[in-house]
Amino acid sequence: MKVRIAFSVFAAALLSGCASGYSQFYQAADGATPEAIAQTRTAPAPAIPKLERSADTPENIANAYGRYGYAVIGYSSFNGAAGQSEQGALDQGKKVGADLVVVVNPQYTNTVSSVIPLSLPTTQTSYTSGSATAYGPGGPVTAYGNATTTTYGSKTTYIPTSTDRFDYGAIYFVKRTYVLGANWRDLTDGERQALQSNKGVYVLGVVNGSPAFDSDVLVGDIILSIDGQAATDQEGFSELVKARRGTTVELLIARDNQLIKKVVSLNR
Predict the structure, then answer these.
(1) pLDDT digits 0-9 by tens, 248-257
(2) Distance (Å, rounded) from C-alpha 100 to C-alpha 114?
(3) 3-state DSSP call for residue 230?
């Protein structure tokens, strides 16, 4: 089986409210359908996945946990404001049936500065007073008075703000059963040149306690064939292994410029 994990960072808008980037930006791993997960996991999904943290790269995390039988079923990757809760990753892990959620330590990316306009009502009151004299048959009469005038308006104040942003990520795993217990990929052009062959798969990882582990298949080995049938590519080799589950097979391996044979009893 080949572990595939792409961990590109998506440029996400500032998350608000109860929205979780771990849910919004979740992507399932290749082939990690609910049906495929159910067929290969060692036990039913737990009520709450185990949560761990790591500062390593996603690829190294996947390979490290792969040695203990964990397979990647999906990942979340996004950029957001500081303070994203790990509970969002745990909730997403529960939603997809993960046994383990590994949160990648957030990495600071930038600070976004802006201003917030704050408009408040204003009032202005003016006072006026005056007098008037009237003349009549009884003599002059003087009257005094005053008036109040209120003007209503608004005033806008601009408040500076800044928001620190981080790259966030999480990887979701299930503990699964293995027929052979190794992860592999297709050969590079350089490896094909060195072998003088287009056939073979490169071993990326070996699961502790698996048939591959017990038979001393090593990381860096190139498996050329199984029971004499060529390992044409990683998908084709997967099918050859599945077809022989529960049987004893012979692997032809290229290691350190030598050809060696390994007899391996596959799991069902």
Answers:
(1) 999 999 999 9
(2) 39
(3) strand
